[in-house]
Amino acid sequence: MEKLTKVIVLTFFITLFSCQSDDVETAINLENTARLSTIIGNQSIETGAVIACAASDANGAEVVHVFYYLEEGATNVQFFETNTTEVDSNDYSKYRKLDLHSTPLFNGFIYQFTRPFAHEQWIIVSYELDGELKLSNPIRTKNTSKPTLWTDQVLVNQEVSKMPKFSWEADATGDTAIYFQIVSTVDNGLLSGTYTLENQFQYYNTSNVVLNISEENPVELTIGNSYKFTMMDVSEDNWVNTAIQSIFIAQ
């Protein structure tokens, strides 16, 4: 019988991503801002090159967080959105630029835009790198139709010392394209960042990892120390169905 270690519930696990404060951006009139199609102009572009997704806030679905991974050397990060989802998501003339500020998470491993959304829209994040304009795939917000489920429910199997194996419930609607996992210190120091197609991940074991965006091999866990596990269940259109955060003690 497998030894399943129950995680310690992190009472304020939502505070890392959930921050409805005075810094949340207010609504912006998209008709007065530049179109993505105009900004692209004659530039060399690469589509699908920015890793990004979005989730509704744990304290209220009207606020949405847009997360993206910033490659080393990237500059001029920009945020674009449509007025509605009832447009062709690949028609760049429908996207308008918003001057939003992003904040670092996990010591700058990923970044986050936060702003209120009265209705669902399409979003694209871009930056410049190596003489090209890199674009994310379109992100469809679903804060009204399918708000992100925030939970701490994950099983941690520590049968192999210092190599905890995490498993979690798959989305009941079958709307999952990929899972994103982060193992970190309790104060959000990044240890590993990985993607899998399966609803399980074992620390230090990349046999089922389809994308590893950690810069270095993860450090060995220390027995008795507390660590944080974060997981995002991401749909084909880059919406986070479920977000998990829990604290565990390494064994």
Summarize the structure.
The chain has 251 residues and is mainly beta. Helix content is 2%, strand content 43%.
Low-confidence stretches: 1-15, 19-27
- CATH top level assignment of the largest domain: Mainly Beta
Q: What would you report as the Rg, rounded to the nearest angstrom?
A: 18 Å
- How many strand elements? 20
Query: So, CATH architecture of the largest domain?
Result: Sandwich
Query: What is the count of helical runs?
Result: 1
Helix content: under 10%
Q: Can you tell me the number of structural domains?
A: 2
Envelope shape = globular
Kindly describe this structure.
- This is Lipoprotein.
- It comes from Kordia periserrulae.
- It contains one helix and 20 strands.
- By secondary structure, the protein is mostly beta strands.
- The chain has two domains: 4-15 and 146-249, Immunoglobulin-like (Sandwich); 18-140, Immunoglobulin-like (Sandwich), CATH 2.60.40.
- The protein is globular and about 55 Å long.
- The chain starts with a strand and ends with a strand.
